[in-house]
Amino acid sequence: MVHNRQSGPRLLGALMLLALAACGDDSLVLQRGQGSLQRVSLGPSSSAPLAAEGKTVLVDHLVPPAEITPWAVQAPKGPVFVPTSTTAGVTTDAGLMLRGQGAKVVSIPGTFDTQAFNQLALRGTFVESVAVRLQFMRKGKAVTGTRGQQTSSSRSSQLFIFDVPDLRCQVRPIDEIRILISEESTRSVIQSLDLLLRPLESWLPTPGEEPGLIDIAFDLRRGWGLTNLAPLTGQAALAPGSRLRFSYGIPGALWMPRQTPVLHLTVTDETGASHRESFAVAADEKRSSAWLTADVDLAELSGKQATLHFELEVNRKSLGLCAVAEPTLYVPGQKAPTVILITSDTHRADHLGVAGTNLVKTPALDALAARGVRFTDCLTATNVTNPSHIALMTATHPRDTRVVDNHHPLSQAAPTLAEAFRSQGFATYACISARHLVEGESGLGQGFDRMNSPITSQRGAQITTHITEQWLDESAGLPLFIWLHLFDVHTPYAPPEGYDRRYYPTHKNPFSEDLPAPPFDPEVVSGTPLEGLRDPVFPHAQYRAEVDFLDDQLGGLLRHERFADALIAFTADHGESFGQHGVYYDHAELYPDSIHVPLIMSWPGGPVDAVSSAPVRQIDLGRTLLNLSGCADSEFPGRDLRDELDGNTSANARFGLSSAALSACVNVDGWHLILHLKDHHQKQITAKRFKHSVELYDLRNDPECLEDLADREHDRAIRLRALLVHWLGQAPAEGWSTSGNMDPEAIARLADLGYAGMDEEAGQGNWFETDCACDNCARFAPQ
Length: 783
Prior knowledge:
Blueprint: E1 2-4, H1 8-22, E2 36-39, E3 43-44, E4 57-62, E5 72-74, E6 77-82, E7 85-87, E8 90-92, E9 95-99, E10 104-112, E11 119-126, E12 131-138, E13 141-145, E14 149-150, E15 154-163, E16 174-181, E17 187-197, E18 212-216, E19 219-227, E20 232-237, E21 243-249, E22 262-269, E23 274-280, E24 292-297, E25 305-313, E26 321-331, E27 338-344, H2 363-370, E28 373-379, H3 385-394, H4 398-401, H5 417-423, E29 427-431, H6 439-442, E30 450-452, H7 461-474, E31 480-486, H8 538-558, E32 567-571, E33 577-578, E34 584-586, H9 592-595, E35 596-602, E36 610-617, H10 621-628, E37 654-657, E38 663-668, E39 671-676, E40 694-698, H11 714-729, H12 744-750, H13 775-779
Helix pairs in contact: 7-8
């Protein structure tokens, strides 16, 4: 149902627009003005073989000795050497078994030449999902190390590839390599550690192939590698008024000492006229560099076809490397369209000023709702960040993507919203505020020309919105699709100065032992910034202040001139709980607290100050954005949310699948049923949930889900459970989940060294055991 806070002739006009929108009238789509964008594909300028065709070679194969020494182990229990064994025709390599609950360290002594290897391959088995990383030591002190990689919980051997191209900057040898395993481990087996040498240039995408995202100072841009041995060339149509725009730079780990590289560009048309410019590729003494962007006026060229030639010059007789990204010929447009999708991490639907709960002050989001439509009953598909964003960006439910945690990236086979916009001539940018959403950890970079992420695990909105505003200014005249992700509302609930304690007395100490004990076990907040908390309302007060701060930062960005007539969507990946259902300061479980999210949309010619109470799925947002942008012909799943604005409320069921597939839910006709798929009792919840138990809530009369009606409404619970079980059973056998520790390109390069096929397929199997005969299943089995 749509409610409009207008009156008289203005209301009539708005309703007419609304009706047109519901019919998908093409007159309401964003207009592209006179702007155009043409990406240029770059390849080698000659048939000469590239240095990048060199192969990775094995330098050393380290295996644990049967007597264990001289290797050393730190573990709760003594290590045991496990010999090679064969069971049912499957051979398991010998290895060093590390036992006991807790962190573990394996030390491998030796003299390791840092110039001789730049990649390591670790083989092992891990009963639990743990983090594994490497540390390089000299005289007992760590000189450098790798980031952690998350293992799968499996008794099969797994492979982990650690890239260390900047290890060569350690001039002196190292004398010890350490393997560090996180404290969740109870038993792990280390089978081997291989030292490998990979050609440096192979860390950059190969010219002539699909461009890849290249990371320079946590700013990823799509392009190719360029060496001083092999220039790059490309061709494109040349329109009157064309400009050439591209980015260039050197990743810090690939910087060559004492080099002063210069990038030469020559653009020639078919008449023989040419334009030539040179660009210094700068980096500081610490090898940290940044992307540089060039914008070249090609007005002097009168032909219809342009040939681009990039060449790298270095001042030393050694390999020189550079990245060239986003080469684009464009004609600026006065009304180039702007589409922005904003996701606020952990943002509850009821924490908007316009929601009328008086919990927060959000004038910017309220103003956005006033110029568009707010959907008050929007559910996300899951309660965890990466799977939720993956569902949003693919319009595919986690049941089918099979990505249900933050450790398994999306497969490159998945079609994404960014790819759809990119194919329609939009420049595509992603600016994110949580590190685990970056391409290498989420797989969400595909289709984006740029993806900027924080250096640490997270960053504030002021940084992310500032970068986005810089990109807007830098991309004047280009059609843009932007994904802006903000993380401020997420834990640790630490609003900045000016917002801190906005909703909590400044004189009060929420950690004072003079306060009564909190209604939860201290373990709930142990090891977090809230450890020792006594006042349970303090985190929620700080959360509310974070919402206010986020809105203030967002308001500044939305005042940019490009958003005056843009298509804007604001939503969240999931909500948050503050004690509801025994869930404290987390988004565990599938109650509305965790999956009911805000959704506001505004577009030129769309409804104004409208409110829709229709039950909608967030995963349909992408399809809607494409249709509104004039891209209705893009192959992308989902339904157009404008269809819900005609007052015909959809009766289709909405389904959810929780983090790690612990629970599933169905929401239909005002009823909300939760089916727990596994026994689970996370740290943040006070009561254990039991496998195949059922909860049922009447949302019309009990929107906070305070009374479980599974017994009183037993027949209804049976029907809804059967509907949910049937839906779970419709999942495809394989999804788009990949192993978080496996880089497909790296494995392809190493296949000839025998590394292929070492990892389990992620995300397989049935979500529900239909033949289960447990008491809970018997209790709710169809009669």
